[in-house]
Design goal:
The chain is of the alpha/beta class. It contains 13 helices and 15 strands. An eight-stranded mixed beta sheet has the order 10-11-9-12-13-8-14-15, sandwiched between helices. Helix 11 links the parallel strand 10 and strand 11. Helix 2 packs parallel to helix 3. The C terminus is likely disordered.
Length: 393
């Protein structure tokens, strides 16, 4: 379906969408925009990368009263990176509607600068729950006129411990008329919010379209702890990868591994929750510009990062959450490119890895090292030598 066929959308939005390079609507947009425009609540389950921001962004913008510079819509996101990304996309959609202003508030940034921006007036606020609560408690934001609330990546946000904050935020917005939630999975916490606050919500489910699924070749390598770093380094070198994301479970491992890679002469940096927003922005800018070859990150810190040309994703640690694995490998193979992902695991984690792949409906090729050529080859038989000590440096 073409955007121009949507009679409920203003010419300014259509012009902005065309400027952004979009012509056809995605399934989630086609199903969601008319429903939200009619004022109905929505609970939508859709994979990452299906165009959810435009799906809720267009109705949010269309329902704003441009003559009143007070917050009328609040969009909550689990991380500052995702909040910034949403705010940027909404700004693009409002390119031809300069009267509509968007404020993005999140933790780790200067509170006073955010207060100054809010004082200047805005109609749409994109926020992380914690920072929005800070502004509400300090009375630096007026939410009396907020009629529309959107929770993006609702499952992730509620699983991160924001359940009580989200409820407090919703409870304080007495003028609320609609609540919409967008989520990759419908967790118990998402259902609880739906039962408590939504009325006759339209349930929308979008399955991954086969032809639009990223082409990602997945490999799994069984490795012992002392050989793990050497295996990681050799994968990057033998693959000739220029832009790699490596995922760890904790910020301690993330920082430690980055230091080890730097000592091996890799241009590497890390992203985790203890960094300031200025540091995170600088690291991401360097990664996008190709000044960093290897970005090591935790799952939460990497949420909302949008880089199209990541050559490979390496799971240095097996993720504790099945959804994390899907989000991790989805960082490569974007924009119709082919990608590659590696999963490093210990022998004792074999059953967990098999369960993870089965539940996420992924297939990974077992591989081991060909020591003569320092190449990974597909595992055919169980061999003892694949666990021997490897030294390449």
């Amino acid at each position: 379906m073409l955007y121009t066929e949507l009679r409920c959308v203003s010419p300014e939005i259509l012009q902005a969408v065309e400027r952004m390079g979009f012509t056809d609507m995605t399934e989630i947009q086609e199903k969601t925009i008319p429903v939200m425009m009619a004022g109905q609540d929505v609970i939508a389950k859709a994979p990452t990368g299906t165009g959810k921001t435009c799906a809720f962004g267009i109705p949010v913008i269309e329902k704003v009263d441009k003559t009143k510079a007070v917050p009328q819509s609040v969009i909550l996101a689990p991380t500052r990176e995702l909040a910034q990304q949403i705010a940027d996309d909404l700004a693009d959609l409002c390119h031809f509607i300069p009267e509509i202003r968007i404020a993005c508030v999140y933790g780790g940034a200067n509170m006073q600068k955010q207060i100054d921006k809010l004082k200047k007036g805005c109609q749409i606020v994109v926020a992380t729950p914690g920072r929005l609560m800070d502004h509400m408690q300090h009375h630096t934001i007026d939410t009396k006129a907020v009629t529309t609330i959107v929770l993006d990546e609702a499952d992730e946000m509620l699983n991160m411990g924001f359940y009580k904050d989200v409820r407090r935020i919703i409870d304080q917005m007495k003028a609320r008329r609609s609540l919409s939630m967008f989520s990759a999975t419908i967790s118990r916490e998402v259902m609880d919010i739906g039962w408590l606050y939504q009325k006759n919500a339209a349930e929308i489910t979008v399955q991954p379209v086969l032809e639009s699924q990223p082409k990602i070749t997945q490999y799994m390598l069984c490795t012992t702890g002392r050989n793990k770093l050497a295996d990681l380094a050799q994968i990057i070198i033998s693959g000739g990868y220029k832009r790699v994301m490596v995922f760890c479970d904790t910020k301690f491992t993330t920082a430690t591994l980055t230091n080890q890679l730097v000592r091996l002469n890799f241009v590497a940096d890390c992203l985790h929750g203890d960094l300031s927003q200025a540091e995170r922005n600088k690291i991401m800018a360097n990664f996008r510009e190709g000044k960093i070859d290897v970005l090591v990150a935790t799952d939460v810190a990497a949420r909302g990062i949008d880089v199209d040309d990541v050559d490979a994703v390496i799971n240095y640690e097996v993720p504790g959450s099945n959804e994390y694995y899907t989000h991790r490998i989805g960082r490569t193979g974007r924009a119709k490119r082919e990608g590659v992902a590696y999963l490093l695991y210990g022998k004792e984690e074999t059953r967990r890895v098999e369960e993870l792949l089965r539940l996420t409906r992924n297939k990974a090729i077992p591989v081991h090292w060909d020591f003569a050529h320092k190449n990974l080859v597909e595992e055919k038989v169980e061999t003892g030598d694949k666990f021997q000590v490897r030294r390449y440096f």
